[in-house]
Amino acid sequence: MYVLDDGSTLISTIAKELEDIVDLTAYQLDQKHFITSCRKKLISDGILVLPRFLTQQAVNILTAEAEMGHGEAFYTNTSHNIYLTKPNPGLSSDHIFNRQVFSSQGCIATDQIPSGSKLKSIYNSKLFRQFTAKVLEQDKLYEYADPLSSINVTYAQEGQKLGWHFDNSSFSITLLLQSPEEGGVFEYVKDIRNAETDDMNFKGVADVVEGKIEPIRVILEPGTLTLFRGKNSIHRVTGTIGKKKRMLVVFAYNQLPGIALSEAARMTFFGRLQ
Fold first, then answer.
1. What percent of the chain shows pLDDT beyond 90?
2. pLDDT given for residue 15 in this prediction
3. Tens digits of per-residue pLDDT, 14-50?
4. Strand (E) or helix (H) holding 263
5. Which residues, 6 or more positions from 242, have their beta carbon under 8 angstroms from its beta carbon?
6. Residue 259: its pLDDT value, please?
7. Residue 22 near residue 53 (C-beta atoms within 8 A)
8. Phi, psi torsion values for 225, nearest 5 degrees
């Protein structure tokens, strides 16, 4: 029995759909003790990893769906600084703030995902959104106002990777659909800066990038749900090795309604605005 915030106790149509998608026996998304333990884990580690969150049937269906959509993906191969901002001309070119790293991946946008996709069932589920909001200590989560940014599927083919960076958003929610043969490892160093107090810790950040600080390595398996706080925790995904591409779903929510991803970001990630 799942008790929603509106007081209803009968499983809704969407929640019934989730029973075929999410292992609700292992992950009781409405239970206070489970939500509390997830929140504590996220606070202590900076990351929450829920393996086999998806049923194997759902993994198979969504992997096949993502493979079919791969031909429509927009690929980027860009250099950027770790802070995802323009360079600071007041600092030297070799300063860690201005140092360039490389990222490359493909992406399909929300409007390219089939209307009946199980990804949309998860994203729009009251149960799932209520669970993630409570774990992230948010009052409510809202979809993006533009038609591209709420649900994305990303693809990393051989040699493609995400370079070291900090996120602009305070949290990210992802589902791994397919692991590569090798590589594609998520690495991070928790809370190496504090953007809220303007403590950038340039020395520590440089030490991470130069390999002087060992990051935490997270090996994910298909079907894993991950919640991550990347605004102050530097992170990357190592390059894919082998012909089998890494496929990852990004569920993007806002803390306020009516917010669209910036036009610059949409052009970077999707190559279009609409």
1. 87
2. 61
3. 467 798 999 999 999 999 999 999 999 999 999 999 9
4. helix 263-270
5. 158, 180, 181, 182, 183
6. 92
7. yes
8. -95, 135
d(CA 135, CA 132): 5
| Residue 101: both structure tokens together | 């790293």
How far CA 188 is from CA of 4, 79, 163, 198, 231, in Å, comes to 34, 19, 11, 20, 11
State the Cα angle at 191 between 29 and 135, rounded to 5°. Answer: 15
Among 92, 98, 96, residue whose Cα is nearest residue 204? 96
Distance (Å, whole) CA 119 – CA 251: 9
Q: What phi and psi, each to the nearest 5 degrees, are found at residue 261? A: -65, 145
Q: Stretch 85-107: mean pLDDT, rounded?
A: 95
123 is written with which tokens? 């994203």
Q: How many angstroms separate the CA atoms of 48 and 140, rounded?
A: 19
All domains in the chain, ordered by first residue: 47-112+140-270 (2.60.120.620)
C-alpha–C-alpha distance, residues 37 and 98, integer Å: 39
